[in-house]
Amino acid sequence: MPRQRATSDADILAATGRAIGAHGPGRLTLAHVGAEAGVSPATLSQRFGSKRGLLLAFAADAAADAAAPYQRARAEHDSPLAALHAVAEEFAGHMSSPEEMANHLGMLQLDLSDPEFRVHAAAHTRAVDAALQELLTDAVVKSELPSGTDVQRLARAIKITTDGSLLRWALTGDGNPAALLRDDLDHLFGRTS
pLDDT tier at 3 (50, 70, 90 boundaries)? Predict the structure, then answer.
């Protein structure tokens, strides 16, 4: 019988995300991820082949799991818009400093410049769009949004607002990212805080 792995691939990929936030993908080493995950760099090489293999596995995992935060939030909230705000707050909570956001944006550079990464980024984007559209459709059904709302276009606007709000916070350092994001989303929905 094969030996049980002490640290799962899922735990390693979660550690990879934290290490990316701390170092960015360019400066990231297998030693950084190993220290975060509690495994040796040799173990990472054995499982993923290389730093590139690990980053590609991270990107694929992120794409496969992209809808999960929306699904979890929807299960926890009666209101679809409250679920949307909960997801936005969760995302904002992952950004503790402008430097951490810059490190995560380093993955975007890979996504845009490398076709193998771009495939995963496109899948991630499509999954988020679908999850947002599902939430917004539910919000229309529950009369939280007007009947006839173009949920596809609103989903796109929400993603643009979310990304732009967090980027603006990183550039200015003004305020709390979660509070700013909530305010920007409320403005998008025509609500005042």
Answer: low
| CB hemisphere CA count around 54 (13 angstroms) | 30
Q: What is the DSSP letter of 5?
A: P
Q: How many residues does the chain have?
A: 193
Q: What is the DSSP string of 116-177?
A: HHHHHHHHHHHHHHHHHHHHHHHHHHTTSS-TT--HHHHHHHHHHHHHHHHHHHHHH--S-H
What does the mean pLDDT of the chain come to?
A: 93
Query: In this structure, how many other beta carbons lie within 10 angstroms of the beta carbon of residue 49?
Result: 12
Distance (Å, whole) CA 94 – CA 181: 13
Confidence (pLDDT) at 111: 94
Element counts in the chain: helices (H) and strands (E): 10, 0
Do the beta carbons of residue 130 and residue 56 sit within 8 Å? no
Question: What tens digit of pLDDT does each residue of 14-60 get?
Answer: 999 999 999 999 999 999 999 999 999 999 999 999 999 999 999 99
Question: Strand, coil or helix: what is 110?
Answer: helix
Tell me how far apart the alpha carbons of residues 167 and 125 are, in angstroms, rounded to a whole number.
17
